[in-house]
Amino acid sequence: MHLNSLYIDSFRCIRECNIRPSERINCIVGDNASGKTSVLESIYLLGRGQSFRQNQLSKAIRENADAFTIRGRAQENGQQQLTRLGCHVTGRSAQFKLDNLTATRRYDLVAALPLQHIDPNVHRLLEQGPQHRRHFLDWGVFHVEHAFFPAWRRYRRALKQRNRALRFHRPKHEVIAWDNELVGQGEIVDACRRRYLELIKKQLPENTNALIGEDALEFHYQPGWRGDDGYGAALAGSLEQDIKARITQNGPHRADIRVNIAATRARDWVSRGQQKILTAALLLAQAHILYTLKNVRPILLIDDMAAELGKQYRETLAEEILRCGAQSFVTFLDPSLIPRAFQDQTLFHVEQGRVSA
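Now predict its structure.
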């Protein structure tokens, strides 16, 4: 998958952008606050239906403008058919459009334009709470396990109703009325995650050896409940605790992954730059899996690639990105920071609110 055109009007500090990106590497260069990250954010909006910066999209409308518009055309590699995506946001509404669908959902955008985002804070995957690692895991599961999303959606609905009953101190029979649906759908979600994690474990050495060496990398999956008797037994056993806490404390919504390198927890592993390299390797492994199983290459959005990385790490990471074969948009403060492996790739400049080749 790749974008063959991108149009931006009045989005943040970008006045206008109308470019035809390369199918491979697109280097975007500009000063601080010039709009480099806004270009990546615009693509992210087309593929996720939300921003990675803020929830209220109307705040991204350029000063003195009434609305912003983003449009793109995407194409599967080797195919002629185009997918048209669009976003139009005013002070009162946000509209997303995918081809001729009368009602476009975020699910439609995520499925139509798979993309990965690697930003300077990507180390949060290792350092911060389990929601970041669940998001990492579920992105991959969503794209390769067809049973996952319907089960996850039904699980979330049942969880919402059970938590509502707990919050308002409803009788026990109204709480446990949702348990069968939670357990049935939760076990499907858990099985999908476990299968995908095995794929990650098999793929990782190919992506990590060049970046972090041959230190043993281990994953420890925590499904969101304790015990060997299954989710149903864990949910029933925690009923009294749930009633006291007024929330469901066990289930796939509490799952986590612990990542160890040579028996050391990854978040404690030496430097921030090395954590960034490891996290990038995990995301690249996901890209390889998606291509291997579905013949789809996700678009890579890599913001400030040089941040906290020495020259050797930058060069090695650039070679791995090239080997991935995906269309990539990579930002740099200065052309001198562009790795040798990217020297012959497409270059765009961002200056005074305009993007030019």
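The mean pLDDT is 90.
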